[in-house]
């Protein structure tokens, strides 16, 4: 595990980040690719139908990332203490729990498919697009959950390039299958979902093969340790809340916007969410790459390495925010045109992006600090940051802003939520994040570095 402990130059740190960043970008592409092909070959109503199902995928990914990040931090600490057997037991136990959840969620989703679609806000007009997509998503719960789970845990195992290979294979297959099913066979949202689930399954199988044959972390006989499981869930709860809150936010956006603009408004929300998922992937990549370094060195009591990781991460996040804003300022219209031609939906989306885009200036620091506290095993502080930025402030501003500035207030809610949260994140970091490092015996590092 030398990759976690050796000192790096900033250039080496960027090279270390790249597989994780690219993996998260490729992950963000799965739904985006569905949207691209559906918008081109099935129309804006089908595109809106996919957006209705996003909360379902958020639940699947939320539970998966909760277990992966929560348990991953614990596994990383054990690896830092050279307790490999305990790390293997936790990995095996959490994998079994995720399998049980996936089976139950899949069965319940298929049985109650139409009531769930109605609850998520599908109109009668959109139902023909929503039901096929949702059915395939529920049927594919197991590979969807384990694909993300394995991609997170290969980083804990010190091999982020495997996660990149998983995502690359899945992405290429997704493009090919979506074109075949949606563009050639004209299967609409059913074909889009089928192409995505099949490509995710191939990616998950690569991860399974890695952990069965090549990883330092291995499957072994284990029993349920309720204390460790509870710690894993609470420690990773912030990441789950982020995913679930994204689903809740999407649901609320859909319900509000459909009243103002109908199905065209939902299509605009869908495009904005695709842009959001793509660019937030840069920050997620930085956070998930840094997390195993922090947890491993927290277990190894190596303050200097944690300080180095924080310093480089903050620099990278600031530069990334400026790059994203510049990209949206120059190429925003081009990005929207990837999904929709000129017309009412384009105009709605362009206006929405203008008010929404400032979110990317602030969101990176909040995402990273939430992940940082998870890596330290402080799930409560992480959950506070995550819940504020992705749920509490979003809901608050959804009720406050639209009456004040009409429908444009909806697009301003997430930027305002991130701005409000960043002050609290900074306070918690200065109060708790730095204090944790002071408790570690590392005389070679100075806290002035961070």
List keywords for this structure.
single chain; 450 residues; mainly alpha; disordered C terminus
What can you tell me about this protein's structure?
The radius of gyration is 21 Å and the shape is globular. It is 86% helix and 0% strand. The chain is built from 16 helices and no strands. The two termini are 24 Å apart. It is an all-alpha fold and 450 residues long. The longest helix is centred in the middle third of the chain and has 63 residues, at 237-299. Helix 11 (237-299) packs antiparallel against helix 12 and helix 15 packs antiparallel against helix 16. It has helices at residues 2-5, 10-41, 44-80, 84-111, 113-119, 124-139, 141-156, 160-184, 188-213, 226-235, 237-299, 303-337, 344-356, 359-375, 379-405, 408-438.
In short:
The chain is 86% helix and 0% strand. The protein has 450 residues and is mainly alpha-helical.
Query: Rg to the nearest angstrom?
Result: 21 Å
Number of helices: 16
Cα separation of the termini: 24 Å
- Counting helices, strands and paired strands, the structural category is mainly alpha
**Element-by-element helix/strand order:** HHHHHHHHHHHHHHHH
What ranges have pLDDT less than 50 throughout 5 or more consecutive residues?
Answer: 442-449
Q: Per DSSP, what share of the residues sits in E-state strands of 2 or more residues?
A: under 5%
* Helix proportion: over 70%
Number of strands: 0
The best one-word shape is globular
In this structure, how is the largest beta sheet organized? none
Mean of residue pLDDT?
86
């Amino acid at each position: 595990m030398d990759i976690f402990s050796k000192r790096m130059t900033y250039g080496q740190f960027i090279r270390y980040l790249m597989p994780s960043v690219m993996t998260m970008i490729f992950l963000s592409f799965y739904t985006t690719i569905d949207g691209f092909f559906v918008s081109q070959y099935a129309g804006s109503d089908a595109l809106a139908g996919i957006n209705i199902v996003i909360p379902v995928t958020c639940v699947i990914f939320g539970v998966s990332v909760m277990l992966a990040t929560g348990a991953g931090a614990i596994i990383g600490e054990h690896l830092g203490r050279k307790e490999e057997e305990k790390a293997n037991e936790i990995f095996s136990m959490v994998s079994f729990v995720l399998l049980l959840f996936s089976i139950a969620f899949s069965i319940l989703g298929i049985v109650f498919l139409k009531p769930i679609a109605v609850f998520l806000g599908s109109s009668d007009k959109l139902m023909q697009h929503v039901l096929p997509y949702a059915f395939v998503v529920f049927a594919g719960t197991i590979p969807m959950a384990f694909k993300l789970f394995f991609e997170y845990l290969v980083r804990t195992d010190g091999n982020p390039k495997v996660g990149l290979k998983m995502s690359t294979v899945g992405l290429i297959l997704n493009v090919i299958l979506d074109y075949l099913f949606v563009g050639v066979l004209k299967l609409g949202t059913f074909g889009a979902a089928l192409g995505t689930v099949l490509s995710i399954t191939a990616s998950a199988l690569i991860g399974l093969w890695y952990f069965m044959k090549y990883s330092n972390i291995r499957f072994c006989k284990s029993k349920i340790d309720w204390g460790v499981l509870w710690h894993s869930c609470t420690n990773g709860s912030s990441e789950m809340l982020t995913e679930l809150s994204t689903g809740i936010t999407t649901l609320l956006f859909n319900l509000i916007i459909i009243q103002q603009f109908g199905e065209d408004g939902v299509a605009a929300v869908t495009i904005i969410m695709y842009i959001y998922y793509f660019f937030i992937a840069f920050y997620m990549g930085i956070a998930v790459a840094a997390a195993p370094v922090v947890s491993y060195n927290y277990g190894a009591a190596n303050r200097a390495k944690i300080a180095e990781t924080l310093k480089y991460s903050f620099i990278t996040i600031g530069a990334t925010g400026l790059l994203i804003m510049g990209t949206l300022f120059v190429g925003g219209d081009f990005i929207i045109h990837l999904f929709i031609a000129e017309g009412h939906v384009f105009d709605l989306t362009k206006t929405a992006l203008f008010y929404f885009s400032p979110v990317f200036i602030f969101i990176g620091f909040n995402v990273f600090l939430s992940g940082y506290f998870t890596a330290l095993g402080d799930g409560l502080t992480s959950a506070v940051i995550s819940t504020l930025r992705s749920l509490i402030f979003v809901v608050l501003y959804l009720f406050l802003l639209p009456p004040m500035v009409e429908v444009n207030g909806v697009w301003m809610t997430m930027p305002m939520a991130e701005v409000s949260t960043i002050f609290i994140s900074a306070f918690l970091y200065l109060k708790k994040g730095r204090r944790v490092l002071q408790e570690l015996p590392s005389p070679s590092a100075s806290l002035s570095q961070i």
